[in-house]
Amino acid sequence: MSANATRRASIIGTGLIGGSVGLALRHLGWHVTGSDADPASAQRALELGAIDAVGLDPLSELSLVAAPVSAISTEVRRALAHTAGVVTDVGSVKASVVAEVDDPRFVGGHPMAGSEQLGVDGASADLFEGAVWVLTPVAGTDPDHFATVDAMARSLGADVVALDPNRHDALVAVVSHVPHLTAAALMTIADERSDEHAALLRLAAGGFRDMTRIAAGSPSIWPDICAENREAIVEVVDRLTEELARLKALVVADDRPGLIATLERAQAARRNLPSRSVQPEFLAEVRIPVPDREGAIAGVATLASDLAINIADFEIAHSSEGDRGVVIVLVDRAVAGIYQQSLVERGYRPSVRALD
Amino acid sequence: MSANATRRASIIGTGLIGGSVGLALRHLGWHVTGSDADPASAQRALELGAIDAVGLDPLSELSLVAAPVSAISTEVRRALAHTAGVVTDVGSVKASVVAEVDDPRFVGGHPMAGSEQLGVDGASADLFEGAVWVLTPVAGTDPDHFATVDAMARSLGADVVALDPNRHDALVAVVSHVPHLTAAALMTIADERSDEHAALLRLAAGGFRDMTRIAAGSPSIWPDICAENREAIVEVVDRLTEELARLKALVVADDRPGLIATLERAQAARRNLPSRSVQPEFLAEVRIPVPDREGAIAGVATLASDLAINIADFEIAHSSEGDRGVVIVLVDRAVAGIYQQSLVERGYRPSVRALD
Known about the structure:
2 copies of one chain form a homodimer.
Chain A: E1 8-12, H1 16-27, E2 31-35, H2 39-47, E3 53-54, E4 62-65, H3 72-82, E5 86-89, H4 95-101, E6 106-111, E7 132-136, H5 143-155, E8 159-162, H6 165-196, H7 199-202, H8 206-212, H9 222-228, H10 230-252, H11 256-271, E9 283-291, H12 294-306, E10 311-318, E11 324-332, H13 336-345, E12 351-354
Parallel strand pairs in A: 1-2, 1-4, 2-3, 4-5, 5-6, 7-8
Antiparallel strand pairs in A: 6-7, 9-11, 9-12, 10-11
Helix pairs in contact in A: 3-4, 6-10
């Protein structure tokens, strides 16, 4: 291919993820053709500039399948049959599709970016900036094709993490699938009890709200995910049940050192949870107690902008009870002192620690 | 008591909560005497203006025990013995202390306000503004003494919710104690797996971070809470285990309608979780997709201030994968349209719905 040839891609499934990849690749100069099971969605993608044309381009160097999990292997095989380039997908579960397709030109993928906004109207060219994009090469994967997908993901600003497909599925069961089911279970129990005691929901403060927030998401994607990743999900649910039984035994036995040891381990692990996609060795964590009110939050955030300090991560830890919160921001270690001092001058009481 | 007499209170335990009550009552003109098991803490409370004097004031109309859970009943009895007024406490568990003390002059209490900042240095006079403050009167409680504590809590800006002590304990097991243990269990499992697979933590996105955030809190208060509320905690852990087993069975059986029904119930319940201390009938929820970056968050929040729109509640829903988020603000229904229009003019894509 000459250096001046336009690179060509096809997007199969022009929803939020497919549309965002289309927008981003077109910004980078690619020619993007797109299709969707719902023709109106492909038409809308065309209107929004996410694709150049509707259809499947036989000259595609790269085809990206962003269809629902249950349709992925069929669409991947179709793209392999009609193009000579590499085919990748964006499904949340990987082992089954990788085993089913089994082709040197297929590279499984899972960009860990999304949004509550479903559909191409929520698409954005910078959706993948700083996101983790998992790729799941196997022994039969062609290295050049892998390199093409890897470079495409990086050109969209993503951090590529290569994992064995089974390992990917085991890990997302731990950090995504079982937490989602657990949030639903906690919310179900609260809902049952609130039928009897309306006061219950008045006692549900920030900590409970944080824990159950993901349960507010759309249920529609979960039957497929649960079916495709059944084994890993069942294994982690069993492990969670076991861990809850162990905690219950500590409570029943009033085993205080045992309880403290468990909670201290969890505390240390949570505090060291790395900021997404940023190396912790250059960051400091600034914790700023604030009321959960708009003025204080804006003040803390805009002060950083005023000082030209980039915020690598921003979260609000509600206290487990009540309305107060702590804004936790990660900033470059070199400027943490300046930020802290400016906050103190404005009446905040921040604490700063370097991340290990 | 004449209208001009200075009202007198004693605070036993001058940490975050006791110190905040002291500051707030002094702002309201009360004379506040305070003590602490650690004399340095009482001294610091004096320096910070949280108390007028160190000690226990025999003339106290109201004494508030803000000691650790295991010390509460002893301190309540001491306050009852040395004063003629009402005595209340702020412990997280209520049935045991109410049963142990059993005195018409004692009113159990639990202000649901706190902060990660431990100690009197984190105290603030407005800590209880908008917070729920549970009081647990029983058959033997003197109504006038109850009214005194109720009025004191309301004068600090709190919403008083009166509950039977056993009911209080059963409800906080659901919305606070078991969620905390569950967050620790999820974090423990992730930590185990991350020892083998360092990539795991790179896949831990916003949803997992939200769910485990409370596990970063201090473990020290939990052995007492678990000991005092053992029965309710065990009951809710059992119910959660049962619910997880039911979900697992749905996954194993690939029961898609069953899974969808469960997740839809949880979704509806979570979406209708009322904003703390605000009546939902006059509010609208505005959902604004944003990158999790400081500029966008500040923009959304300060725009409301610029328009003189009061934000009743403010939270950030991280998507279950990736860095994006949705800012969810609750505003008065009457001004939601103006806010939405101004957001659209600034390039946001908010959606608005009235709360049921």
